[in-house]
Design the sequence.
């Protein structure tokens, strides 16, 4: 699955990560939101981004029908471990969560949280990615860390 970042770059979501998203879709009436972090690589030769991995919901996350809050320390421990195992090539790329709607759109709370992540995250990239998994489709947004702007990406 690919989305255009701009006219020259795409973000690719691996089959492994797409399977993770599929597993946590909120299909049932009582299914709770799920989420985690996105991990992957910046491909220098093409400037593309590949999402290779994602964390799954963890025990201390807060999961409700219309709300998800990850336990930062638990997910960060996995991010750090993968960073070290990959010899510093698998990077933190952003966040993902589910919505119980066919074609997801971010809530005002989502946008506010994404801007906080853009402002507070310590990483080398000027952009981060945010994915919302709906019951029928996936929405992808990119956020600029300098301007604190978020824009929706179109699927290619």
Sequence:
């Amino acid at each position: 699955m690919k989305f255009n970042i701009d006219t020259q770059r795409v973000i690719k979501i691996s089959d492994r990560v797409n399977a993770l998203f599929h597993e946590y879709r909120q299909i049932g009436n009582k299914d709770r939101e799920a989420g985690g972090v996105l991990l992957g690589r910046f491909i220098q030769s093409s400037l593309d981004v590949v999402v290779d991995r994602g964390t799954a919901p963890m025990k201390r996350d807060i999961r409700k029908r219309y709300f998800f809050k990850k336990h930062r320390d638990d997910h960060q421990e996995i991010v750090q471990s993968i960073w070290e195992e990959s010899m510093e090539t698998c990077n933190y790329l952003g966040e993902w969560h589910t919505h119980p709607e066919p074609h997801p759109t971010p809530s005002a709370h989502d946008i506010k949280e994404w801007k906080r992540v853009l402002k507070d995250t310590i990483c080398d990239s000027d952009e981060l990615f945010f994915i919302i998994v709906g019951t029928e489709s996936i929405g992808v947004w990119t956020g600029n860390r300098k301007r604190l702007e978020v824009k929706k990406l179109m699927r290619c």
Residues 72-85 form the longest helix (14 residues). Strands lie at 2-4, 10-13, 35-42, 49-54, 62-64, 67-69, 91-98, 127-133, 138-144, 149-155. The chain has one domain: 2-155.
